């Protein structure tokens, strides 16, 4: 298989990088990727929650939680 001058230049440039620099670069790249994923998922989740709240989806769920809190309060009042 024949290599192009561009591939040879890329390989020779990478040979001059120390293992330490490669490890640090990969570590920082992984941290950046992870942080970006978390921030992106948070933004998407917030937008979906805002849209569902605007559509009134959470009003039915709110009633369910109120009933659960009432049952919990009644259960706590029963002497043990």
Structure description:
With 80 residues, this protein is mainly α. The chain has one domain (5-77). It is built from 3 helices and no strands. The N and C termini lie far apart (81 Å).
Summed up:
This protein has 80 residues and is mostly helical. The chain has helices at residues 5-15, 19-55, 57-77.
Topology:
Blueprint (H helix, E strand, L loop, with lengths): L4 H11 L3 H37 L1 H21 L3
State the end-to-end CA separation. Answer: 81 Å
The averaged pLDDT comes out at: 88
What order do the helices and strands follow?
Answer: HHH
Q: Roughly what percent helix?
A: over 70%
User: Any idea how many domains?
Assistant: 1
> What composes the largest sheet?
none
Shape: elongated
Beta strand count: 0
How would you classify the quaternary structure?
Answer: single chain
Strand content: under 5%
Low-confidence sequence ranges: none
Number of helices: 3
Structural class: mainly alpha
The value of Rg in angstroms is: 28 Å
Name the descriptors.
80 residues, 86% helix
């Amino acid at each position: 298989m024949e290599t192009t001058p561009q591939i040879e230049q890329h390989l020779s440039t990478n040979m001059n990088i120390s293992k330490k620099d490669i490890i640090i670069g990969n570590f920082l790249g992984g941290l950046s990727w992870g942080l970006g994923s978390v921030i992106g998922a948070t933004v998407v989740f917030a937008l979906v929650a805002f849209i569902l709240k605007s559509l009134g989806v959470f009003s039915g769920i709110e009633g369910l939680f109120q009933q659960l809190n009432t049952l919990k309060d009644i259960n706590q009042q029963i002497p043990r």
